[in-house]
């Protein structure tokens, strides 16, 4: 399926999960990582509005750590030391530590690349450390100083469910005249659906499970996404030079960062500072054909704007998800800020409804 859609205006339908205009900042004063149910990732405890909102849009992931594969055990026990080569086990552990401290690396693949380097530099910035192009002792010590985070399992066992197997199927509404327009809004395969659920590249998922048939009831090795940040975000900065979205709390602290695609040479992003106007979970997408007719694509993870649309006071521009998470910061956008679907969902849950968005 061709995921290169026309680069034109986005028109969204609001859904029931769109939040009210009141700021969500007052509903979660916590400045710490949220507690979770034991052996369940992405299930936050507590009644705070941010946590409830994140629980509504993120899938909870039950997992086990019994009888882990030898490869999973190597990754979970990996430790970096000076002059240690960044092999796939150590790099996977590094990517997990960065993700768990809310500096996203994109799809986890166990490979050192620009998204991992950018996440490390954002972490260094947040910690007041000198930014570097390579991992160093000071950075590793800062990444592992929280023992609870440092000892979480990176790779875990997960049992594929019937819901997983059926997630890429749908009932096409009778009123849709051109049913071909629905093609591709949903996952094309179970591998794609599982890779996105676990924030991992499809290739790495298959590498970790070389003999898997990917059937319901089967136990596979997956990356553990752990929990998103629950700190309210009042300002984000889309940096065109680093292709990174930086998120700040009301005190000006850098609390998260996400790899992003910000515009292109053909369709550059705007400049200046704007406001969040609307937040939409599972948006549709409207575009105009050359002949003047319009088509509306329904919601879905492979919708051109993915699972989230955050519209700005600058008309037609916004922050949104992507049908191609593995290409984030490696492809162009139509002037908007494009994130992986999981990062867009995490930001959706914590972004103040009147937050500022700065392009630089």
CATH-assigned homologous superfamily of the domain at 233-359 = L,D-transpeptidase catalytic domain-like
Count of beta strands = 15
**How many DSSP helices?**
10
Cα-atom Rg, whole angstroms? 20 Å
- CATH classification, class level of the domain at 233-359: Mainly Beta
Contiguous runs where pLDDT drops below 50 for at least 5 residues: 4-36, 169-180
Q: Work out the strand percent.
A: 15-25%
**Largest beta-sheet details:** 9 strands, mixed
Strand order of the largest sheet: 7-6-5-15-9-12-13-14-8
What is the H-and-E element order?
A: EHEHHHHHEHHHEEEEEEEEEEEHE
CATH architectural type of the domain at 233-359: Beta Barrel
Helix content: 10-25%
Could you characterize what this model shows?
The protein is built from 10 helices and 15 strands. The radius of gyration is 20 Å and the shape is globular. Residues 4-36 and 169-180 have low confidence and may be disordered. The longest helix is centred in the middle third of the chain and has 14 residues, at 114-127. It is α+β, with helices and mostly antiparallel strands and 360 residues long. The protein has a domain at 233-359: L,D-transpeptidase catalytic domain-like (Beta Barrel). A hairpin with a 5-residue loop joins strand 12 and strand 13.
């Amino acid at each position: 399926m061709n995921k290169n859609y026309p680069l034109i205006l986005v028109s969204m339908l609001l859904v029931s999960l769109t939040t009210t205009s009141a700021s969500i900042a007052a509903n979660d004063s916590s400045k710490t990582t949220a507690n979770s149910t034991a052996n369940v990732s992405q299930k936050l405890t507590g009644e705070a509005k941010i946590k409830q909102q994140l629980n509504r849009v993120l899938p909870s992931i039950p997992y086990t750590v019994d009888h882990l594969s030898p490869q999973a055990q190597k990754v979970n026990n990996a430790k970096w030391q000076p002059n240690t080569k960044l092999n796939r086990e150590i790099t996977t552990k590094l990517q997990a530590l960065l993700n768990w401290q809310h500096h996203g690396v994109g799809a986890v693949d166990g490979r050192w690349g620009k998204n991992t380097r950018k996440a490390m530099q954002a972490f260094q910035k947040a910690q007041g450390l000198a930014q570097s192009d390579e991992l160093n002792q000071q950075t590793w010590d800062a990444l592992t100083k929280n023992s609870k985070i440092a000892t979480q399992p990176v790779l875990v066992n997960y049992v594929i469910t019937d819901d997983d197997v059926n997630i890429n199927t749908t009932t096409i509404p009778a009123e849709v005249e051109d049913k071909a327009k629905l093609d591709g809004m949903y996952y094309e395969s179970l591998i794609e659906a599982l890779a996105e659920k676990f924030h991992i590249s499809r290739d790495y998922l298959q590498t970790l499970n070389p003999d898997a048939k990917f059937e319901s009831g089967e136990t596979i090795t997956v990356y553990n996404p752990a929990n998103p940040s629950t700190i309210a975000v009042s300002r984000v900065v889309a940096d065109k030079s680093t292709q990174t979205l930086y998120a700040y709390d009301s005190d000006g602290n850098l609390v998260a960062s996400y790899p992003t695609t910000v515009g292109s040479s053909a369709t550059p992003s705007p400049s200046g500072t704007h406001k969040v106007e609307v937040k939409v979970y599972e948006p549709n997408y409207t575009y105009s054909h050359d002949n003047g007719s319009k088509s509306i694509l329904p919601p879905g993870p492979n919708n051109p704007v993915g699972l989230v649309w955050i519209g700005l006071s600058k008309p037609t521009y916004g922050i949104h998800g992507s049908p191609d998470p593995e290409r984030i910061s490696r492809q162009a956008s139509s002037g908007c800020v494009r994130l992986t679907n999981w990062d867009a969902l995490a930001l959706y849950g914590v972004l103040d409804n009147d937050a500022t968005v700065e392009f630089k």
